[in-house]
Each structure stands twice: as structure tokens, then as C-alpha cells.
Amino acid sequence: MRSSIASAMQRFRPGIAPTLVVLVLLPLMVSLGFWQLSRGHEKQLLVERYAERRAAEPISSAQLNDMADPAFRRVHLRGQLDAAHSILLDNRMRDGKAGVELLQPFQDQASGLWLLLNRGWLPWPDRRTPPAFSTPEQALNLDAWVYVAPGETFQLHADPASAQWPRLLTALHPAALWDELGRSGFAYELRAEAGPGTYETTWPIVAMGPEKHLAYAVQWFAMALALLVLYLYLGWHNKKEKPHGSGHESTQHV
């Protein structure tokens, strides 16, 4: 048994270059597979927490500032929109169509708290003309939920400083807005549910669902296995050929 194993190991000659490639790529592929599994688990927990909190009854805006984790909490609001300080969040796609999301300050009458309310998505097919929207002047009764971004929005360059309104932005910073306006406001965006004064409010919870992360993990593990199998195959079939004699010997006659 030992002799057969030793014989097999002697025949295993993969070469230096393939060995170096496998040593670099195999751990990388396996680690990427486990990273995708981890991300999928995080997304699954996020989706479950969203579903649980969206099923709960709305709370009042006065309770928001005392919450350590307000993400996805439903909030009942009654108040008015500030049409003079509208924000258009750029580069928002829906069903392959370009558009913007309309956000406006909203003051809740019960608590007096200012909130940045996302009224929904608007199409913007022609960038030569600004998106058209209207703002109700009367007090509104509506429900919304707190959106906490998972991280900073990727930007090729920072939004230019501007004093004009409506303001076109690619990333939101509610705290900076409240400082600019001199108001005490909530630190996160609220996304309106379908109701009075809203536009398209079908919000995706995550850009990539947990099932896609699982599929990517399977792909990375499959590529790692294929690389290992190919390495073993080449190692056992890469035997050096033994040199053969020419088979022609010269004869000398005396």
C-alpha cells in the first residue's frame, strides 16, 4: 500500500508554474465563496428584519430619536411638506428607466420634528428639462418607514456645492441638510408608503438578494474544485518522456 502511494507521488509532476497558479488562485476562490455566503446570510437577516418591522403598527415620530436601531420602523406622520427645499436624488433606475427620487423636509405636527421624506421615484427621460412634480399645500396624513443605508453611497466625485433649489444630488446627508437649514431634524431618510402626495414607492430592500449571493458562492466553489481537479490531472499526466536511443548503430568492417 505504501509503495503504491509512494509510486503515485513519484509520478505526480505538475510543474512549478501550475503549482504557483494553484497556490494563488485556489485560496482566493475559496475565500470569495465563503465571503458570498456571509453576505447572503447578512442579506437574509436584513430581509427578515424588514418583513418583521413592516408588519408592526406605526409608531409616532417622537419615539424615533430614542431608538438605538430605527431601521425599517414604520412611522405615522401628520404635517406639511417644505416645497422650498426639494432634493432630487439622481441616478435612480426603475425597470430600466432613468429617473430621480424626490425628497422634501416634512415637519410632523405632533412632535415638531423635521424629517426628510422621500416621496418616491419620478421618471426623467429628458435631462434637458427638469423633472416635473407638485407639492401638496395642505397637511398630510401618511405612513412612512425609516431607511438606514448599509454604507456610504459610491460617488465618482462629490456633489458640487449649490445654493439653488431644487437641488440635484447623488448622495444624501440629512444631518448636513438640517445644519444648513438651521433645523433640528431626524438623522435618517424616511420613505413614504403609497398614499397622498406620493409617487412610485415600490422600494427594493436590497440591491442583490440572498439567493444571488448563494449562486455566486456556488460558482466560486465550483471553479475552485475545477482548478484543483485540473491541477491533479496535469500532475499525473505530465510525466517526462524517457529519451529513446536512435536504434541505428554504425558497423565497422575490418
Automatic annotation (TrEMBL):
<dbReference type="GO" id="GO:0005886">
    <property type="term" value="C:plasma membrane"/>
</dbReference>
<feature type="transmembrane region" description="Helical">
    <location>
        <begin position="214"/>
        <end position="234"/>
    </location>
</feature>
<keyword id="KW-0472">Membrane</keyword>
<dbReference type="InterPro" id="IPR002994">
    <property type="entry name" value="Surf1/Shy1"/>
</dbReference>
<dbReference type="Pfam" id="PF02104">
    <property type="entry name" value="SURF1"/>
</dbReference>
<dbReference type="InterPro" id="IPR045214">
    <property type="entry name" value="Surf1/Surf4"/>
</dbReference>
<keyword id="KW-0812">Transmembrane</keyword>
<comment type="similarity">
    <text>Belongs to the SURF1 family.</text>
</comment>
<protein>
    <recommendedName>
        <fullName>SURF1-like protein</fullName>
    </recommendedName>
</protein>
<keyword id="KW-1003">Cell membrane</keyword>
<keyword id="KW-1133">Transmembrane helix</keyword>
